[in-house]
Amino acid sequence: HLRMIVIFFASACFFIGSYFFHNGAEYFLFTNIFAALIFCDIESQFYGYAVLIFSSFTFLKISQANYSDWLNEFRSRSTINMLLVVIILIVIIRFFKAISFNFIDKLEATSKVFETQKNEKEKILKIVAHDLRNPISGILGLSKILLNKENDESNIKSLTLIHDAANNSLEFVNEIMQIQSASDIQIKLTEVDLHKIFEHVIALQMDAIDRKKIQLTLNFTRNSFLLQLDEAKFSRVFSNLIHNAIKFSHIGGQIEINANFIDTSHLMISIKDYGIGIPKKYMPFLFTVVMGSKKRNGTAGEISHGFGLIICKEIIEAHKGVISVISNEGEGSVFNIVLPKIAIN
User: For the chain, how are helix, strand and coil distributed in percent, rounded to 5?
Assistant: First the structure.
């Protein structure tokens, strides 16, 4: 309404200027038609305003000349051409405005549907994660207690399977819960030794490494790289990447972990395996939720959840870093993490 009041006020000024001062301001009335066409969302208002403008223009031309002179001027080619241009421009603007409005309506409808589905999905995932976490944690704790007691070989094997299954399930639930708040990751920076983080992560996965007889090499020493990072979150990143490297490596395979300065302001951390690699068709979806529906089992039948890399990407980007991958199917993969100087001591 405010925009239409401004346009109407401008038209009144042009009308007064033309009527009292004969300064040709009547032709500027047509510019207000285009302004009304663009800013007016109600068709009846626009058509009413257009009729008012044309009527005002006609009145001004008649009042400024006798009838015969005005009629001759109206019939002149220049006037007819001007009116045709005005009409054509009105039609063109109306056409593109209709297209844009239609597109906006569809976009808003799609956005509402997407938002509703997203909220429902988050609600379901939170409920599932909340209801599963406690019983799984209980099973994991009881299996640890039983494993520490004396058991025969068959019981130890069964308890180990229970423990591994509970641990994998708890990791999956934790991943779901982290994805819910990935966009609001809170970083707590502390000075940490990169080698120490890897030592801790590797120790937790020694059972899987030994099971597949994998040779894992950490190609840098303690205190080589002291970084300002969120230790807990980067432990999660390295745990996911090493877990994937183990999962998709062959029995007796190799995994190499390297860290080097690639220039004066960036450090690159690489985790390389010589396993089955990643098919090209999966590469565009690797760090997206879509990958969750394209998950693959490991070389020994290990189950994939499909969410780990999403979490890795979010955590690394929260540290102003970048993660990328180079992979050839059948030859293995290299995951590279590049961190800026701001995160490096």
Answer: 65, 15, 20
Buried b (16+ CB within 10 A) or exposed e, 180-212: eeeeeeeeeeeebbbbebbeebbeebeebbeeb
Beta strand 226-229 with 254-263 is unpaired
- Residue keyed to tokens 């020994």: 300
Ordered DSSP codes for 54-114: HHHHHHHHHHTS-HHHHHHHHHSHHHHHHHHHHHHHHHHHHHHHHHHHHHHHHHHHHHHHH
pLDDT, residue 59, reads: 79
Instruction: Provide the whole-model pTM.
Output: 0.55
Q: Which of 246, 233, 173 shows the shortest CA–CA distance to 205? A: 246
Residue 235: predicted pLDDT? 87
Distances (CA, A) of 69 to 62, 65, 75, 146: 9, 6, 10, 109
Q: What is the mean pLDDT of the chain?
A: 78
Confidence class for position 230, pLDDT limits 50, 70, 90: confident
Q: Mean pLDDT, to the nearest integer, of 69-81?
A: 59
pLDDT in tens, 317-331: 989 999 999 999 999
Q: What counts of helices (H) and strands (E) characterise the chain?
A: 10, 7
Residue 314 phi, psi dihedral angles, 5° rounding? -60, -45
Residue 333 backbone class (left: φ over 0; alpha: ψ -120 to 50; beta: rest): beta
> Using an 8 Å Cβ cutoff, are 227 and 192 in contact?
yes
Cα-Cα-Cα-Cα torsion 44, 45, 46, 48, nearest 10 degrees, comes to: 80
Q: Once rounded to an integer, what is the mean pLDDT over residues 26-47? A: 74
